[in-house]
Amino acid sequence: MTTHALPNQHGKTWFITGASAGIGRVVTEQLLAEGHRVFATARRPAALADLVAKYSDQLWTETLDVTNTAVQSAVVNRAFAELGRIDVVVNNAGYGLFGAAEELTDEQVHHQIATNLV
Ligand SMILES: NC(=O)c1ccc[n+]([C@@H]2O[C@H](COP(=O)([O-])OP(=O)(O)OC[C@H]3O[C@@H](n4cnc5c(N)ncnc54)[C@H](OP(=O)(O)O)[C@@H]3O)[C@@H](O)[C@H]2O)c1
Asked: If DSSP states are collapsed to H, E and C, what string results for the chain?
């Protein structure tokens, strides 16, 4: 990923799921460093405390387990209410599940589909 600095007025507003770790966290860090605004959601938003301290005027965080469909609309509505717009959604939250089909439980399979797809 390139790291060209963007002036704030040209920055976009991003909504990211699963921002606590891995690719979601790295993308969040990169976007903030480039001057974009990020509404970062995670099961553990406290994992983003260091970025909130560093980018308090660019970063909003909210708790979101993407399998909890009951709260998704409220979280998205909060993002629109606080930021006024969302230009890009990064639907990143998810995980791999490895094993032969007969080794995995129905619960494991359903939970992964609920997380990565539904
Ligand atoms: N890395 C790869 O090679 C690769 C390849 C193909 C696809 N992907 C996909 O790319 C995405 C990111 O991968 P990664 O390598 O960065 O994985 P990762 O390091 O395991 O990070 C996954 C992120 O998703 C979050 N997450 C998992 N379940 C969640 C849920 N129910 N609600 C909200 N957040 C949830 C995790 O939160 P917690 O910190 O709370 O666990 C974590 O922040 C995933 O969707 C993965 O399936 C990755």
From this structure: CCCCCCCHHHCCEEEECCCCCHHHHHHHHHHHHCCCEEEEEECCHHHHHHHHHHCCCCEEEEECCCCCHHHHHHHHHHHHHHHCCCCEEECCCCCCCCCCHHHCCHHHHHHHHHHHCC
Q: Are 44 and 24 in contact (CB under 8 A)?
A: no
pTM, full prediction: 0.92
Mutate to test the pocket of ligand 1, among 25, 29, 43 (most ligand atoms within 8 A of CB): 43
Rounded to the nearest angstrom, the distance between the alpha carbon of 4 and the centre of ligand 1 is 26
pLDDT single digits (tens) 73-87 = 999 999 999 999 999
